[in-house]
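Before relying on records like the one below, remember that each one covers exactly one chain. Contacts with other chains, cofactors or solvent are not represented anywhere in the record.
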Amino acid sequence: AGAALPKAGGTMTGALVVDAGNGGLDIRLGTDKRVYWAGNIGEIGSTAGFQATNTAGSALAAFGIRATELKFATGSATRLTIDATGDVTVPGKVLVNTDIRLGSEGVRLSSDGNGEFGIGYGQTATNSRFTVYNNTAVAFRVLPNGNVGIGVTPVAHYTGYRALDIGTAMS
């Protein structure tokens, strides 16, 4: 043991051990911010975790982590990595309960929970069509009116009917 640190300034070397008991470790950051570490936080139950709140502890607050790379692990294995470019690597499965949305173009992969898998495009885009490519060539396209083209852009043939157009070009 050594001399106590002054209330402001000072330097400590060695390990810092805080026995916070059941109360957790509470760090007040000023400007109505507070982060605490505890083992009894709402939705995560008795798992040790961080929570960011306002100073009064009556509302959640934003929490940030800044580093060149973030790694999340369970057991002895890395489960998720976010690298410096923003790429996310997940070596295992990604389970999603609702849908996956890509970018601002309205691309969506979804499941209704009853075995039907859906791929949607154009929920917010102006062209509202779904296209599958083989390399850079259009393999098939579905237009918002339900017309389908395989190897060609589908066209409407008769009012009130849906069209299935199959390309005729041979390669």
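The two ends are 83 Å apart (CA to CA).
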